[in-house]
Amino acid sequence: MKFEWDDIKLFVAVAEAGGLTAAATKTGMSAATLGRHISALENIVGNSLFHRSPRGYQLTPLGEDLLAHAQNVSNSMSALQRWSEQLKVKPIVRISAGPWTSLFLAQHMADLWKEDTDLTIQLVSGLERVDIGHRHAEMGVRNVRPHEQWLAGRKLGAVAYALYACADGSEHNEPRYIGVTDTMSSARSAQWLEQNHSDNVVLRASDSMSVREMAAAGIGQAVLPCFIGDQDPRLKRSSELIDALRTEHWLVMHHDERHRPAIRKVADRLVNLLQHHQALFEATKKADIKPA
């Protein structure tokens, strides 16, 4: 029998509130969502935890036992939290993002972290999605809306893509492209390039930075997000925006963690930063298209 702590916390909220509606106000979750969590917990224990009636939810004897154990754990967790606060350890806020977004955040870290800010920020960069639900990061910048019920998402805008080539390079007789290998090949931009220009891919790399550097060196054209390509003076757009690669920008956090002061502070600054530069991300400024 394996319990999820999130289910236990919601069970305690419903028990203390005496019903789903009151607990929904307290937790910020819908009554329907709370009901699903309670049903899932009852399936685990194999019996009812509440007597349901028009007057509300009343604990069964089994539910009373579970509540007593849950409150003991909750008290222990609260004591542990107070102990950690006494250590005066700065809270760590981990931001997960893809390689290019991580680069952008690193370049603008002064907008996210201040010397007088009583917290630490860690960038968790990579193509693989970091599991926020299991607290492997406090927040993430993703290109799709989260569908997990325990995650909260805020749409920030969109990201545009185009082909880029060396700004000072001469045109080639035949178009040449730079592809990717390994885990990079699962990226949508990599799949688009293979579907449309696989016969003209002349070189490949296993990381995004190398692809950009080869494009800047005049080897060939590379698919890049416009907020990277348009900011690099060594590169020029060699195509119109690629509509098939346009993605959304979402800030994703765990429902239970997003109101913690440190997380809220970083999230607000992150939203302000990305929205301030949204014209760059969406490439709304007209750029000169110069064929490679």
TrEMBL record:
Domain HTH lysR-type: 3-60
Keyword Transcription regulation: yes
InterPro entries assigned to the protein according to its UniProt record, in alphabetical order: LysR-type_TF_proteobact-type (IPR058163), LysR_HTH_N (IPR000847), LysR_subst-bd (IPR005119), WH-like_DNA-bd_sf (IPR036388), WH_DNA-bd_sf (IPR036390)
An MF annotation (GO) of this entry: sequence-specific DNA binding
GO biological process entries: DNA-templated transcription
Annotated keywords: DNA-binding, Transcription, Transcription regulation
Organism domain of life: Bacteria
Keyword Transcription regulation attributed: yes
Pfam families, sorted: HTH_1, LysR_substrate
Family recorded in the similarity comment: Belongs to the LysR transcriptional regulatory family.
Name listed for the protein in its UniProt record: Putative hydrogen peroxide-inducible protein activator
Organism for this UniProt entry: Maritalea myrionectae
